[in-house]
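Q: Hand in one record:
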Amino acid sequence: MSASQRVSRDFHRLAVLSAVIPLLLGIVYSLWSPYQAANDELNRHHKLECAREHAALWPPVTTSSEFDDEEKDIPLDLKSVGCSDRDDDTVSYAEAANPPEFNWWASYARHIAPILALTAAISLGTPIAWSAR
């Protein structure tokens, strides 16, 4: 085997190694980050359900029986109804009155898909860039 073939083979090994590193880091990040985001959304959903359950504690607001467009933006302080410990935790009255359904797995999948696609693109693009040299 000639020296140029050994150098070429070593560069191919280096290309594979340089693809594996972002792949492993990307997989770890793509599993952790969506997990955190889905848990944050779950915590928010629990706070909305708590606010709905404690509707009797809501400060009075002059409203009609249905929420119209102006009332959707009226903030409800979650700390005042006992659903949060933070002062800046607010939701709209309309959102607290009718919290949306929540599916943890759907939230996780929505967050993981773009990160996995980016990880795959970087990991596949690295050896292609190396082989072009």
Notes: The longest strand covers residues 75-77. Helices lie at 3-53, 93-97, 104-131. Residues 3-57+65-131 form one domain. Residues 59 and 76 are 8 Å apart (CA to CA).
